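User: For my dataset I need records formatted as: sequence, then structure tokens, nothing else. Please produce one.
Assistant:
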Amino acid sequence: MMQAMLRERVAEALAQHRPGFSLPQALYVDDDMHRADLEAVFETDWLFACNVAEIKQPGDYITLEIGPNSVVVLRDRDGQVRAFHNTCRHRGSRICLEEKGRANRLVCPYHQWVYELDGKLLNARQMPQGFDVSQYHLKPAKVEVICGLVYISIAEDPPSLARFRAAISPYIAPHQPDRTKVAYQCTIVEEANWKLVIENNRECYHCAGNHPELLVSLIEFALPDDPRATATFQDIMGRAAAKWDRLGLPHRPADGGNEFRCIRLPFNEGAVSFTMDGKPACNKLLGDLTEPDLGSVRMFRVPNNWNHFLADHIIHFRVLPLSANRTAVKTTWLVHEDAVEGVDYDVKRLTEVWIATNDQDRRLAENNHLGVRSKAYEPGPYAPSEFMLNNFSDWYMRKMAAYCGVEARHLTAAE
């Protein structure tokens, strides 16, 4: 489909959207809308890639797929985190073929062009005399590291992360994500549109009926002053907030608008971690922390990442769309860099709550996607507890409007 026609179709879909309702069907299931999502969202914004703990040593790398664009994120010889398009400057072959690995240099498997870890082309064998290698370095992607979290962008001019960095750092820095190690990782593929995966994460309306393991620890309420909150929650929240204030730990909702959310919330009474009994998952606390019950810093940033920062471990969730109806969700559990498996933590105990929860969420998102495909589907209204879906849909609609060249007032008129 020609670019102008695609943008016209997207604009038509945007005009059908009602505020406070789920999105029009085409935006969830249409292959052309998926292409527009890639161009309007994933190729223009910052994406969570990994924790620096995943690329600790020079030559350590990970790859991630942003639609047709493969990016390699690595640690260079000076310890700097870099990102490059994973495309050889000879004839375009992929260079790093694995999801993660370690390389002394990057060597294209096709014709063995050799690149230094800073992206410079070192050797292009059999090229003629006078061939200028300086003209064929790897094409870089933008990189930002915030408290050990690596964000990358393939946009020429991505939006500023300054407000995001300033807002979330005080919440996350005490947990020292850069002083962790990977305890376990897994990737599941959900047969659902990426927006349905994100929307499922952005509400806990479904939690009581679907997540028994998670609710051993997690409190459903997403705001400290939630008007639906029980007296029990208000008591737990009040005592936790007083303790965090004494410890100098921020906890009130950060002002992230529709771009991000960061807040510290307590666990259920007697629970301190995401385990089947609520007891610690790792005996060695993160960074220099000494208090095992710090609740969880819940941090989300559009379009592809949410996290939990606890006293004893960290969990990163990374979402990448594979097609209009398939989404890869990667989960990474991290513990203190000096924690010893079998002594300080057991992998099964550390991961079993969220492995169960992820599988439950997978089924929910897949069933949601199947239902959205039906000719009976029409957008339905969000419940008050789904306020974060309003935030996400507003952000998404404005990204798509910018892509189409539609003025914000046109969206308002359509509303």
